[in-house]
Amino acid sequence: MAVKIVESCVNCFACEPVCPSKAIYEAKPHFLVNSKKCTECEGDYPVFQCASICPIEGAILNSMGEAINPPGSLTGIPPEKMAEAMAELQSH
Amino acid sequence: MQLPVLNEAPAPASKGGCSASSCGTTDNQMDSLPDSIREKVQNHPCYSEDAHHYFARMHVAVAPACNIQCHYCNRKYDCANESRPGVVSELLTPDQAVKKTMAVAATIPQMTVLGIAGPGDPLANPERTFETFRRLSEEAPDIKLCVSTNGLALPDSVEELSKHNIDHVTITINTVDPEIGAKIYPWIFWNNKRIKGKKGAKILIEQQQKGLEMLIAKGILVKVNSVMIPGVNDKHLAEVSKIVKSKGAFLHNVMPLIAEAEHGTFYGVMGQRGPTPDELQDLQDSCSGDMNMMRHCRQCRADAVGLLGEDRGDEFTLDKIEDMEIDYQAAMEKRKVIHQAIQAEMDGKRLEKAEKAQQFKQEPKLSTRPVLMAVATSGQGVINMHFGHAKEFLIYEASPEGVRFISHRKADQYCGGDSTCGDGESVLQLTIRALAGCEAVLCSKIGYEPWDMLEAAGIVPNGEHAMESIEEAVMAVYKEMAAAGKLDEKPEAARASA
């Protein structure tokens, strides 16, 4: 039972100080979670602290391997709109 | 410091409101400030329009974390070629930041101000931010320290800020209305929860206003930044300006939204446009009756180094500063001498300006229309740059009231990929497009090709005033235009509002 930080992490440090279990640490190429220490905030907070401050959609996964903040949930940009804009840019 | 205070110069009409000062120049944003504040900001390039021609600033990127999301920001973005707030190339530890600051201060002695502005929110990284400030206030006491913040954590930081000799804080306040706030801030992190929409915006607004009041109560100078977002807060910012002024903010900086799809921001991807130069100027003018407006902001990166409008960050990368041996005591001595010389030059110019203003008042007043002119300068308040070397132009308005600074425009604005911007457009064509609305360009020299192209675009190139004071040269050209009868009618490309 632990969350996982994946490669889309931008190393912004926001999650590290809010972790109640001190399970998050700076590493290369991105921050990591010590799965032995992570409690998924149980007993401390009703929501994942790291995923509640993380600005990057998809950067933190729950123990099922699902993005806690799925595409569009933080920026408000509909995923199809983002895909459209990126395709448009690549065609140039 | 033992610098002469500004009002020792024969103050021309200290009353009479603001914008139309008797100076023959009407750009003096400082005119209506109390002396105590003027003294504090006179060598701060961000707070004083004339100081920004002489003094440099730098930002150290020690603050990566943020506690809110703004629709004009993308936290993934990091590009060496891109210049806008929130973008940095290397994140620094406080130790590296101190070393870099001292290296810059020793190499660029006219650097007077160190700011922490991100790339996240400085006050969401209190340990890194305050460690940097604490060490700099001890080890480099001749550098002014400032910080900019979104305001969410501000009330909790005021006490700590006042300990570190920080007498300038910038708060970004885009709205005082939670309905509007919800369209700018999708979420905040507050009390261990992510709070979305209007509820989050309401908390942010309350914290900003509370923080502003607390800073003023502590005697800390506050500048307010606002991002102008057409259709979202553009109609509302005049009210914001009034409110923050009434609470004691001394300067308001309304900046244009920067939004391009390739930035990956909400506004960029959703096609939200930024304001045109005309719209921005009209809003700044409408706020200026109530508030000192800053118009020379370059919206710089969170790791910018140098005069506003230039970035010498490449000279001070971590590997380069590693090898630099800095004797800061010696550097401070040198800096003091240079600062005094600059100050004397600025005081001389201010005096000269006041005298010219007196003369200008005696002259018969013109009844001609206002004209925008672009100026190529690398600083010192004079026309000293070759047209082809200019990365940006300063825009001045000449009118029967005098000359006032309006804004800057980037010369190398790159194509956003839209249809109005043809693929084959050269840098020169882009530059000329960036000067739309101007009727003359003043520079030290200019080549034949741009000369012809400018003329074809209805902009008169002028290289006759090299090394002259900007305001005087602009007024001289204006008078020539008036004498030649060019100002009796509106030009084809006249501003709608002119």
Descriptive tags:
heterodimer, A: 92 residues, alpha+beta, Alpha-Beta Plaits, two-stranded antiparallel sheet, elongated, B: 498 residues, alpha/beta, TIM Barrel, Nucleotidyltransferase, domain 5, eight-stranded mixed β-sheet, five-stranded mixed β-sheet, 14 helices, globular, disordered N terminus, disordered C terminus
Report on the structure:
The complex is a heterodimer of chains A (92) and B (498). Chain A has helices at 15-18, 49-53, 79-90; strands at 4-5, 24-25, 32-33, 60-61. Chain A is of the alpha+beta class and 92 residues long. Chain A has one domain (1-92): Alpha-Beta Plaits (2-Layer Sandwich), CATH 3.30.70. In chain A, a hairpin with a 6-residue loop joins strand 2 (24-25) and strand 3 (32-33). Chain A is elongated, with a radius of gyration of 15 Å. The model of chain A has no long low-confidence stretch (mean pLDDT 93). By secondary structure, chain B is of the alpha/beta class. Chain B folds into two domains: 25-322, Aldolase class I (TIM Barrel), CATH 3.20.20.70; 366-483, Dinitrogenase iron-molybdenum cofactor biosynthesis domain (Nucleotidyltransferase, domain 5, 2-Layer Sandwich), CATH 3.30.420. Chain B has helices at residues 35-41, 94-107, 126-139, 154-163, 178-181, 197-217, 237-247, 266-270, 277-288, 318-322, 328-362, 427-434, 448-456, 470-483; strands at 56-59, 68-69, 111-116, 144-149, 166-172, 187-190, 193-196, 221-228, 251-256, 293-294, 305-306, 371-375, 392-399, 402-410, 440-442, 460-462. In chain B, strand 3 (111-116), helix 3 (126-139) and strand 4 (144-149) form a beta-alpha-beta unit. In chain B, helix 2 packs parallel to helix 3 (126-139), helix 2 (94-107) crosses helix 11 (328-362) and helix 4 (154-163) runs parallel beside helix 6. Mean pLDDT of chain B is 84; it is low at 1-28, 413-422 and 493-498. The A-B interface holds A 8, 10-14, 17-18, 45, 47, 49, 52-53, 55-56, 74-77, 81-82, 85, 88-89, 92 and B 64-67, 69, 71, 74-76, 78, 91, 120, 124-125, 186-187, 189, 192-194, 261-262, 264-266, 268-270, 417.
